[in-house]
Amino acid sequence: MEGIQTMKPTVIAAAIFTALIGLVSAAGLNTARIDQLTGLKGKLNEKEGVYNVPNARQVAVIDREKREVITRWNTDLAFGNFPMALDEADHRLFIGCRLPPKLVVIDTDAGDVVAKIDISGDCDNVFYDGKRHRAYAICGAGKIDIIDQTDPNTYTASTKVDTADGARTGLFVSERDTSFVAVPHHGSQKAEIRAYRIE
Fold it and tell me: Does residue 38 contact residue 181 with C-beta atoms inside 8 Å?
């Protein structure tokens, strides 16, 4: 399959693989009520970080030193925005949303949505591959969605690679040109880590 080639999976003997999403308390933040902040994925500059606010359909830009919300960016009504990835060179933030299943791309200079791409359901991890100008969305619907970046505002959903139902936790290791996906135990399917070589 173009883009990603499945490698022999590596099995975890203990059948335990857990991803932790950092939850940050809103206490001490100089802002209106924020129920939950998730997903620090990079710094926009030396002082600012970005966090998802899923219940508000927003992304909060936070001064990390002052612990204050500087501004908020809307996800264009997409809900369940949890995973994020940052293209620092082109100033683009990729946000995986679950309702509806979309990859939302925000211009971090203007704070505007520049693209919304259909992806598979139950997205839990998003990664940006600067070498190939692609985004990878790892989805619990049993897919890795590959989204090609033509330019900072133009994206095309190119390929969906089969994984397994419920396999939504993963890691892209650019140095190894490989995506690792955790497959949960389900029926006769044993829990394991699968490695997908990226071409």
Answer: no
Q: For residue range 111-162, list pLDDT tens digits in order.
A: 999 999 999 999 999 999 999 999 999 999 999 999 999 999 999 999 999 9
Q: Where are the alpha helices (DSSP H) in the chain?
A: none
3-state secondary structure of 56: helix
Quick check: helix, strand or coil at residue 67?
Answer: coil
Q: What is the pLDDT of residues 53-104, one digit of tens each?
A: 888 899 989 888 888 889 999 999 888 898 999 998 999 999 999 999 999 9
- Gap between the Cα atoms of 186 and 86, Å rounded: 33
Question: What is the Cα–Cα distance from 98 to 121, expressed in whole angstroms?
Answer: 6
Tell me the Ramachandran region of residue 128: left when phi exceeds 0, alpha when psi lies from -120 to 50, beta otherwise.
beta
- Count of C-beta atoms within a 10 Å radius of residue 199: 9
| pTM attached to this predicted model | 0.80
Q: Are 49 and 62 in contact (CB under 8 A)?
A: yes
Q: Can you tell me the distance from the alpha carbon of 93 to that of 135, in angstroms, rounded to the nearest whole number?
A: 11
31: helix, coil or strand? coil
Distance of CA 158 to the CA centre of its chain: 17
